[in-house]
Write a sequence for this structure.
């Protein structure tokens, strides 16, 4: 048999099968309904909100626009948190604390405007045993020092953020850390896996 005739026969039979299927298909069974409602997007690489803010935020929330240096400091805090073997919640507490203390700016000695000898992201004091000026102005060292203090707070994971931060920092304004919880959680969600 000629290959051209064979090819035309096979293609003809295939064409009839497709045409018959299209004609008979929809007539022989119900048409499925399609749900056209929008589906919420879920991003698997971001931590869950209940991990980042397990108790919900307290009070009015503040937010500032960050420059590259401040964003870099937030990323350094996240990296140090991972190095310490701690979770996303610890990073949220750390970043919220640094937002309150320095607006995520690695501050040196501010002269007359300085609170005693406080410096760095967490406004830690050499005279209080946090480390040398060089150490506390190093974002990784400062974060690890803060986290070491946080680890010593029994049940910090179950406390409101402001109480956990205050227990480590011993601030004159203990409730001010709470206002940064949402922005800190947003930063951790954005940069934890980057």
């Amino acid at each position: 048999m000629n290959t051209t005739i064979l090819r035309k026969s096979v293609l003809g039979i295939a064409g009839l099968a497709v045409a018959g299927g299209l004609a008979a298909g929809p007539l022989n069974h119900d048409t499925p309904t399609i749900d056209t409602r929008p589906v919420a997007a879920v991003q698997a690489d971001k931590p869950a909100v209940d991990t980042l803010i397990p108790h919900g935020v307290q009070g009015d929330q503040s937010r500032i626009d960050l420059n590259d240096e401040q964003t870099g400091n937030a990323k350094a805090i996240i990296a140090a948190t991972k190095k310490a073997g701690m979770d996303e919640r610890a990073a949220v507490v750390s970043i919220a604390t640094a937002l309150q203390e320095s607006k995520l700016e690695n501050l040196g000695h501010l002269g007359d405007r300085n609170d005693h000898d406080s410096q760095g992201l967490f406004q830690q004091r050499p005279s209080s045993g946090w480390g040398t000026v060089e150490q506390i102005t190093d974002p990784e060292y400062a974060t690890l020092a803060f986290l070491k203090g946080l680890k010593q707070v029994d049940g910090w994971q179950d406390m409101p953020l402001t109480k956990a931060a205050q227990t480590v920092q011993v601030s004159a304004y203990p409730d001010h850390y709470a206002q940064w919880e949402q922005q800190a959680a947003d930063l951790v969600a954005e940069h934890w896996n980057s």
Confidence is low (pLDDT under 50) at residues 13-44.
